[in-house]
Design goal:
The chain has 244 residues and is of the alpha/beta class. It contains six helices and eleven strands. It has a six-stranded mixed beta sheet with strand order 1-4-3-5-2-6, with helices on both faces. Strands 7-8-9 form a three-stranded antiparallel beta sheet. Strands 10-11 form a two-stranded antiparallel sheet. About 4% of the residues have low confidence.
């Protein structure tokens, strides 16, 4: 299922990533309604932004190009204050003497970390962020030739980057286990195994069914070859595939 991304581009970002590659996804909670969050993150006075914001109704907003660093996961390299990178509980952040904004992709989720009835993601919101995580993984692969590892060291919460300043972001009800299982194709979810893959080969455009496994999108060779106009058969005597 393809989803529309609503673009509300923010002026608050780094131009580029200072030579870094996005290797992690960091999840946040807005602690407020989506329109207010998007407005604030696009306001120069806020000095803050995120790459994406996922609304409770499943809408996805993009505020910063994935090739730029957003201002959402900043760590301080030379100061030992609240945002000092060595305070991080994540071994990757703690081991990189670089502003974490330069090697992360940030997702804000509309909601509240503790507010009764608003702390958990809605089902529409969950399916949207599941799709978005996969979209980010594919975009990073396409643009940087890097596979974001699908585990809890590389897909994390803001509280793991800045535990002293943001100890409750994105909150105790964030569905980490379900998200990891669905991204690894070990559990349920509306987007469990199939992911349509688009091809443009010699001006011939088509799509085939794929399967996302550990951040890699795989397609069946037979379907792909037949879409390209080849005939695929099996020679039982020789025990080999014949392609004509």
């Amino acid at each position: 299922m393809e989803r529309k991304i609503i673009r509300r581009m923010s002026p608050n970002h780094f131009n580029g990533r200072g030579g870094e590659t996005p290797i992690m996804i960091v999840n946040h909670i807005t602690e407020g309604a989506v329109q207010g969050a998007v407005s604030w993150l696009c306001n120069p006075a806020s000095k803050a932004s995120a790459h994406f914001v996922v609304a409770r109704n499943g809408d996805i907003y993009q505020l910063v190009d994935i090739r730029n660093g957003s201002w959402c996961n900043g760590t301080a390299i030379y100061s030992k204050g609240k945002y000092y990178y060595k305070n991080s509980t994540n071994s990757i952040v703690r081991g990189k003497a670089v502003n974490a904004n330069l090697f992360t992709v940030s997702i804000e989720h509309e909601g509240y970390s503790y507010k009764e009835g608003r702390g958990a993601l809605t089902e529409e919101q969950y399916q949207a962020t599941l799709w978005l995580h996969r979209h980010i993984i594919n975009e990073v692969k396409s643009k940087y030739h890097h596979d974001i590892v699908v585990d809890r060291e590389h897909i994390i919460g803001h509280y793991e980057v800045a535990p002293k300043e943001k100890p409750n972001c994105p909150g105790p009800l964030f569905p980490w286990d379900r998200l990891m299982k669905d991204l690894q194709n070990k559990g349920g979810g509306a987007m469990d195994n199939a992911s349509r893959v688009k091809f443009d080969f010699n001006n011939k455009k088509f799509t085939v069914d794929g399967k996302l496994i550990d951040g890699h999108n795989y397609v069946q060779a037979r379907e792909l070859l037949e879409k390209l106009g080849y005939t695929v058969g099996w020679d039982n005597a020789l025990r080999e595939i014949k392609i004509k």
